[in-house]
Amino acid sequence: MEKRTEISDLGEFGLIDHLTRNFEIYNASTIIGVGDDAAVIDHFGKQTVVTTDLLIEGIHFDLSYTPLKHLGYKSVIVNLSDVYAMNAQPTQITVSIGISNRFSVEALDEFYEGIYAACKKYKVDLVGGDTSSSGKGFIISVTALGEVAPDKFVQRSTAQQGDLICVSGDVGGAFLGLTLLEREKAIYMQSPGVQPDLEGEDYIVGKLLMPEARKDIIAFFEKNNITPTSMQDVSDGLSSEILHITKKSNLGCMIFEEKLPIHEKSRMAAYKFNLDPTACALSGGEDYELIFTLKQEDYEKITLNEDIAVIGYTTAPEEGTRIKTKGGNLYDITAQGWNAFKG
Ligand code: ADP
Ligand code: MG
After folding, report:
1. What domains are defined for the chain?
2. Where is each PurM-like N-terminal domain found (predicted)?
3. For 305-319, what is each residue's pLDDT tens digit?
4. pLDDT value for 335
5. Exposed / middle / buried, residue 259 (Cβ in 10 Å: 0-12, 13-18, 19+)
6. What is the spatial distance between Cα 43 and Cα 47, in angstroms, rounded to a whole number?
7. Closest atom, ligand 1, to C-alpha of 128
């Protein structure tokens, strides 16, 4: 049998020491990390961005199909994604957890392995957190700090009329991964003997359980001297993010269905589940891609990057927020995707 260490064997301080023992410091801005009343961070003349996310068992994740290591990794990624979406570089995180005695120290070790892997990959420093008991569910709160050169941050509200609307990577995959895992879970609940059939679905399952933050896109902007006119990450679903940018920038838009970046594996999964791939791309969440707008003169520069798709352009607000289908029909974009009943 696997070893199980009770949290009570270590005590709160022993547990914190144990969980944070291997973390390294990557950033010169980290003056004081874990171990004092507060962390001390000095961004040396840069501006600081801060973002935080709360993840609650049963609401944001389901431990019956989410390995703890993946959950730790993803808890960090969702925050780093918000930092990159400001055109900033993440430098520090804090991790707070609410845990019950349902969890062993070994289970928390797995969770922290995921956190460690994300810190190492993205070169961010874990500088603190909090540890508390919770009734039953697992509660995770991660805060990320980042730095950006003075006034180089990019907001949602600053898109201009006639800008190109771009998306990194591909969208809809995480939603299809979730659909698959939920479906397999329902089958398992009915007949526990049946093994889940995830054959050939690594891509969409990976998109859900092991997302990455688009550090590479921010690096590409810097290298090619591109500053998006507006940007945000795609966490709720592409259509809802498009509406955030257009609303906050007081603009309309024209999106082209044929330009939406949908991975072949996502498309195939959608057909298998009898879903419309376009609807999945527009309304599915948790892609953690970046959506941004660019001045038209930057078009040549972004054609260098195969991982950026131009999906449309911004218009005057009176023109509304619309999508043109492959068949040439125009529909209004709604937060849920598109309104096929109101042409
Ligand atoms: P305080 O009494 O000031 O809340 P704690 O005893 O909770 O301090 O924490 C001691 C140190 O350990 C602090 O630096 C805190 O940020 C850090 N810490 C506490 N819990 C965690 C955690 N789950 N992950 C990482 N660091 C933590
Ligand atoms: Mg504390």
Report:
1. 7-148 (3.30.1330.10), 164-341 (3.90.650.10)
2. 35-148
3. 999 999 999 999 999
4. 79
5. middle
6. 7
7. 16
